[in-house]
Amino acid sequence: RLMASGPRVGLAEIMLPARQPGSSIMPGKVNPVMPEVINQIAFQVIGNDHTICLASEAGQLELNVMEPVLVFNLLQS
After folding, report:
1. By three-state DSSP, how is residue 23 classified?
2. What is the predicted pLDDT for the residue at 1?
3. Are residues 77 and 43 in the same domain?
4. Best label site of 20, 43, 58, 72, fewest CB within 10 Å?
5. Is residue 39 located within the same domain as residue 74?
6. Do 42 and 71 fall within a single domain?
7. Which of 42, 49, 44 has the alpha carbon at shortest distance from 70?
8. Total tally of structural domains belonging to the chain
9. Residue 60 has what pLDDT?
């Protein structure tokens, strides 16, 4: 996000296409929408993976009462 922070200030090492209007105070600013979306998706998948691991460990023998949350998070990812 810092590498694409603006045309005059910041590092401006990554040129991102404009996906939404920037700031009215800073003309020419491109908001880093796509990197933010990718971060959010990655965090969700990592959280689902962790939930699946915990639900798998919580099962006792062949009776796994955590199966609904396990399947839900597996299908969500």
Report:
1. coil
2. 61
3. yes
4. 20
5. yes
6. yes
7. 49
8. 2
9. 83
pLDDT tens-digit map of 3-57: 555 566 656 666 667 777 766 777 777 777 788 888 999 999 999 999 999 998 9
Closest to 27 in 3D by CA, of 40, 38, 18: 18
* DSSP-based three-state secondary structure for 33: helix
In angstroms, the Cα distances linking 16 to 22, 23, 27, 75 are 12, 15, 15, 32
Structural domain range at position 19: 1-31
Q: Residues with catalytic annotation?
A: 23
Which two three-digit tokens encode residue 6? Answer: 């603006």
Cα atoms in the 13 Å half-sphere on the side-chain side of 23: 8
> 27 and 2 share a domain?
yes
Asked if pLDDT for residue 74 goes beyond 90, the answer is yes
Amino acid letter, 47: G
52 and 22 in a single domain? The answer is: no
